[in-house]
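Ops channel
N.P.: pipeline sanity check, posting one input/output pair.
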């Protein structure tokens, strides 16, 4: 009987994962609670612990999953379908994304800031910066759903990086916008050919190298009036003393002037700039440069573990004893688990 109920719980949980239906999640919790009560009355602690572990997994997933973390976006007028499509598209990646990391969750407040202020993002390498930029693009699409001419410009200083970003964003936002060329990349020098001009008109998310963006602005001086979001990747490069670093900085300062990034104002039609970097020793100064406010900064030192940690846990009658520092690592990663490890 209990085995069948556990299977029912997993089925309800999977329905929540697929569609974000909170009713299914509540049913799963109710069924688990009833089963645990039954197992306790039968003194069947083996099954009780199995169901407790399932409950903990479901609770942790629910806290970090896309449905929960993007719920505020989904509740906005006419936003439900677009956000739902974005979440389901993440499931179809080569490496499916079903939940957000700590860095991405803590960045959501800045992304959804009511004044849509520009900000600087400083997260260690491999800490989830691209996903934060992706969420900022989703925010842009929701804010300007009725303005098909509004554009997001993603500046990738290196051609290889631009290609990687395109491969990441295209499968997602081509589905979200129902436009197969919603994301287009532009490399090379300052010249624009016929294909570039056509894609520039039809695409909403432009992935560009600094040189190419400079050429676009010169070719079409009115283009800046269409730009509503600028994402400047590898932002620390503007401090590089090489010619590329100087050119990148001059381009950003030009955009800040053209797009009226400063002063900060609560105007949703105002453009915003997100400067992204994994190495910002003076992050507050960068935030002041792009937003006019040193506090417009999301600075997080956390990053996922570089390698699996293996340990043996032994219960000594009072505490869990581990063979290495895995227990401390888990408590840092998820402080809420501490109540179960006492």
């Amino acid at each position: 009987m209990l085995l069948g109920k556990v299977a029912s719980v997993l089925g309800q949980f999977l329905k929540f994962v697929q569609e974000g239906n909170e009713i299914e999640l509540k049913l799963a919790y109710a069924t688990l609670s009833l089963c645990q009560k039954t197992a306790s009355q039968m003194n069947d602690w083996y099954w009780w612990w199995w169901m407790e572990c399932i409950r903990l997994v479901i609770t942790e997933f629910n806290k970090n999953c896309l449905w929960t973390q993007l719920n505020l976006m989904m509740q906005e007028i006419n936003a439900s379908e677009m956000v739902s499509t974005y979440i389901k598209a993440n499931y179809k990646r080569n490496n499916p994304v079903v939940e957000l990391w700590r860095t991405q969750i803590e960045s959501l407040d800045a992304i959804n800031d009511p004044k849509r202020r520009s900000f600087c993002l400083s997260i260690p390498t491999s800490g989830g910066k691209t996903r934060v930029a992706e969420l900022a693009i989703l925010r842009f699409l929701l804010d300007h759903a009725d303005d098909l001419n509004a554009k997001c410009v993603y500046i990738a200083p290196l051609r290889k990086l631009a290609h990687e970003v395109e491969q990441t964003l295209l499968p997602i936002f081509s589905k979200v916008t129902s436009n197969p060329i919603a994301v287009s990349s532009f490399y090379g020098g300052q010249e624009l050919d016929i294909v570039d001009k056509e894609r520039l008109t039809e695409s909403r998310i432009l992935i560009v190298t600094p040189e190419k963006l400079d050429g676009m602005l010169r070719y079409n001086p009115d283009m800046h009036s269409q730009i509503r979001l600028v994402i400047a990747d590898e932002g620390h490069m503007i401090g590089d003393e090489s010619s590329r670093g100087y050119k990148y900085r001059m381009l950003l300062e030009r955009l800040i002037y053209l797009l009226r990034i400063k002063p900060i104002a609560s105007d949703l039609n105002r453009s915003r700039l997100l400067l992204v970097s994994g190495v910002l020793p003076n992050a507050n100064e960068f935030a002041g440069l792009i937003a006019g406010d040193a506090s417009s900064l999301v600075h997080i030192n956390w990053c996922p573990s570089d390698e699996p940690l293996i340990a043996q846990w032994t219960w000594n009658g009072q505490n869990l004893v581990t063979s290495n520092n895995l227990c401390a690592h888990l408590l840092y990663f998820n402080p809420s688990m501490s109540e179960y490890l006492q």
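N.P.: looks fine end to end. The first strand starts at residue 119 and ends at 122.
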